[in-house]
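Example record

Each entry pairs one chain with its bound ligand, flavin mononucleotide.
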Amino acid sequence: MDWKLMQTTAREKFKGACRVCPVCNGVVCSGEVPGMGGLGSGASFRNNIAALAAFKLNLRTVHSVSQPDLRCSVFGHELALPVLGAAIGGLAFNMNGAMSEADYAQTVVSGCAQAGTVCMTGDGPSPVTFESGLAAIRQAGGKGIPIIKPRDPERIVELARQAEAAGAIAFGIDIDAAALVNMTNAGQPVGPKSKQDLAYIKRHTSIPFIVKGIMTVDEAEACRDAGVDAIVVSNHGGRALDHTPGTAEVLPYIAEAVAEAPMQVWVDSGIRSGADVLKLLALGANAVLIGRPLAQGAVGGGVDGVATILDKLRNELTTAMILTGTARVSEVSADIIW
Ligand SMILES: Cc1cc2nc3c(=O)[nH]c(=O)nc-3n(C[C@H](O)[C@H](O)[C@H](O)COP(=O)(O)O)c2cc1C
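Structure tokens for the complex follow.
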């Protein structure tokens, strides 16, 4: 679909909640939470962008890689590209109601499924958020991953079982939402989880368990020890805590520390191009997630808009792989980083 039309439409429908800037870098929307921005000073959002920009790629063209393999395996499912959709909820207060919760979930889940990948769905104070995600995942034949707020472990297990019944390929918790006041104010307490809590959740569920919102080596190791199947190195797109480093800065240390574990390491926050994706794979990620760009695509162009965003990333990643001599997403060399 036409890029300019998609952006203009998105800008109109967001009614100021997102300005759909030429570069989505968290500058204009600093402090806009609720909204689409980064929390507080906006430093964590901007640090994500700056951290990625600080890594440079080695241009290499004396080789025979001309048709790189973008496929990626996630819990035994093959994805066409190593890019998943990130969970986004709270359309009414974050996006000025640009879409309904149900329409949004349906659009991003089916858009990602059509592009050969999967989308995560959100959770929030209103049950509509989680239920909309589950309904969309059910409709897509299970191609989706519901992310549950860090509620009481027993409640997480209950919701995870609903995810299992909907056929979801995995479920997760966004553990970095541990201090979300709108959940607590709505009488649905959230909080940090101990290693024992994580092990309890793993023991009482049967589909793969993802912990999203890990930013330090010791917590990645705790997740590994608790039997977690994948972590997402994430600062919630700069929306959890002000003044955190960018995810690209912490990823290499985390990936190295848990490299021998069967646990997958995913990453999100501030990823805007195929070159960004390739950098993060070179820094140790098995896959990445994108949030705001997908929201702009969904609001501006529905399922086609989501496909347009993923197509752009796929094309850019293909080009970047050719120009760094990277044959396969499953084997990206750290040496492509300058
Ligand atoms: C408006 C908005 C709502 C979000 N809601 C959720 C949510 O319900 N659950 C969750 O795990 N993450 C949520 N996130 C965080 C995203 O899943 C993801 O970590 C983040 O958007 C990645 O950064 P990016 O937008 O810069 O790509 C939300 C992000 C935004 C911008």
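Residues 36, 86-90, 94, 122-124, 147, 174, 212, 234, 236-237, 239, 268-271, 290-292 surround flavin mononucleotide (CB under 6 Å).
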